[in-house]
Amino acid sequence: MKNEIDYVKIKIPSSFDLVEQAKKYNIDKEELRDFHNSNCSISEYIFGNEFIYLEYLYLSKDIYSKWLDQQLLNTKLTLPSDKLITKYGVIINYSPQNVKIHFEVDILRDGNVVEINKGKSYLNDKIPDLLVEQLVEKASNVLYPLQLSINEFGSFTKVLNKKDILIKWKNEVQPELASYYKGVIVEDMINKMNHIFLNLDENKKSLYQNLFFQLYFSPIYRNYLEYKNKGYCDIYFSALNDFISYSIDFKLEKVFINNKKVLRIKGKDKSETGQLDIVYKLNKETNEIFSIVGNFSTKLNKINYGIDFEMYSF
Predict the structure, then answer these.
(1) Helix 184-198 and helix 131-140: axis angle, to 10°?
(2) CA distance 200 to 144
């Protein structure tokens, strides 16, 4: 037998299947059997591919190290602690409206503080040209840069620069809107924005109407016992002017995929006619979100409503 430093002895919890073990460790089955047999005692020999009782598998240390490096052994996702700057591209498609919105955001993360800067929004690949669309864009841009404090789960708890946002709104943007645009629509929008900016901390749902905020600040940083968890979330459907609630199941993949941690979330709405399917990918070292891809559906008055969401870092 070879010196023990050349191999690791792996406890086999149940019946041994050579093909299954070779697939697990990404090694040819003949190579796996030969290495095992050259290091074990005669009583532990593997002679075929059948299910057999085997207490230990003798595996090359190199093969085992490569396998171990791909295993997600810690099932708790912790909030990124490093100072990070990440740029994302966001695309949202709405049906049956047949509307596409895309924009870019820069996120500076420093511990429990996040600063967001948002670029121009494009509607169906064009800069908004209708009056109402321009008003919405002008008013919403008052928020940026937006500084938020976040808790250990990744949800935001407080707007840190709300005083600066309110001053910018009151002294610059609101007078400009009131001066250049007239009519009931403008007055109604100004009143709504006044309410939002005066009560930013108390009006999280107004921010969550932007699906980016809802998903990026979803409380995904938690412990996933046996790689699973349960919860719920509310997704805003602009066509319904309402939030739809979903009961959801979390599944944390046991292995890294393309060097990323992968969290899958599936759920159904209360009527069970609508579904939710989201995939988060997080950077292996920092736990910062690398991408979010998801789709959401619900049904009301025999009409199907859907949202497709994509966000990628670059």
Answers:
(1) 20
(2) 13
